[in-house]
Backbone:
């Protein structure tokens, strides 16, 4: 009669041992990375370069799955609500994580996200346009303050990262801009080159050719320090304005990952984002790698979310998709 408790104890021990071994062996099958945008875009291409490198450090292949829609919210939701076992990760970005929840219509918040690592950032450059009544940063700020609501600044879309960036800068600088959304950065830059607006905000790769050709002057880079690509272009703090902003993307997972799985992913992602081949391939694509740990990634996301919420409320766009 004493045999049954003994067998039960042995069975539990075997089960626990098996579970421990399984956890320690992670990963034992391919890992899926959900990209919340269509194939061929910058986020998708970055994810595929990362996957090629990450498999060296995880020891298993990675499968990139595109799940576009809802401005990135559909794929982000799928990643956040997947099983928290380390076999489904997400390549998410500033828009779906720090901005879309404030517009409403999404089924997640930052509290639902396991932040693993920040991969990179896309900087923001403000350039002057043909015929603008200023040609440098000081003139841009001075004219804007003296002519509230008159400076027309083009952006790549209403409510997007570029729109939020220029409105945030304006709020910090005491300037009321006339933000003008276009159907993408290319259309905004074309309008700028044609003198139809006064300034444009875009990523460096989008506007640098026009700056280097001399057709458009660079006014500001919304960073803490000047950047190598535009060494003569000031940053907001040089004008007494405390505001920075950049778009970013990083790796997320569902909340509740096992600690050993999380530790394995943390180390593999660190090695990936410091890998020379990975850095070279990203640089060739014009992507700025800015690796940060999960804690630092979360801190950035929470800070940008708070800033975005304030601006979105000021614009009267909070909860418009509810």
Residues:
């Amino acid at each position: 009669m004493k045999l049954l408790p003994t067998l039960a104890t042995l069975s539990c021990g075997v089960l626990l041992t098996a579970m421990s071994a399984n956890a320690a062996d992670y990963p034992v099958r391919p890992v899926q990375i959900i990209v919340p945008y269509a194939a061929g875009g910058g986020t998708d291409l970055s994810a595929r370069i990362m996957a090629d490198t990450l498999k060296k450090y995880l020891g298993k292949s990675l499968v990139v799955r595109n799940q576009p829609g809802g401005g990135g919210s559909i794929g982000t939701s799928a990643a956040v609500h997947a099983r928290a076992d380390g076999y489904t990760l997400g390549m998410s970005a500033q828009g779906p994580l720090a901005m879309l929840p404030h517009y409403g219509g999404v089924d997640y918040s930052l509290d639902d996200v396991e932040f693993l690592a920040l991969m990179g950032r896309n900087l923001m450059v403000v350039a002057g346009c043909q015929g603008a009544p200023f040609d440098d940063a000081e003139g841009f700020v001075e004219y804007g303050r003296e002519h509230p609501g008159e400076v027309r600044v083009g952006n790549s879309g209403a409510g997007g990262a570029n729109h939020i960036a220029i409105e945030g800068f304006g709020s910090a600088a005491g300037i009321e801009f006339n933000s003008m959304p276009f159907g993408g950065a290319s259309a905004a830059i074309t309008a700028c080159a044609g003198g139809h607006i006064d300034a444009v905000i875009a990523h460096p790769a989008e506007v640098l050719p026009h700056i280097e050709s001399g057709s458009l002057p660079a006014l500001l880079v919304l960073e803490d320090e000047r950047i190598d690509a535009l060494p003569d272009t000031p940053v907001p703090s040089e004008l007494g304005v405390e505001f920075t902003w950049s778009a970013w993307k990083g790796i997320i997972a569902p909340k509740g990952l096992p600690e050993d799985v999380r530790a394995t992913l943390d180390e593999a992602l660190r090695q990936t984002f410091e890998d020379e081949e990975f850095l070279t391939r990203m640089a060739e694509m014009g992507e700025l790698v800015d690796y940060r740990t999960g804690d630092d990634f979360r801190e950035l996301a929470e800070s940008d979310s708070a800033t975005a919420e304030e601006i979105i409320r000021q614009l009267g766009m909070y909860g418009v998709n509810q």
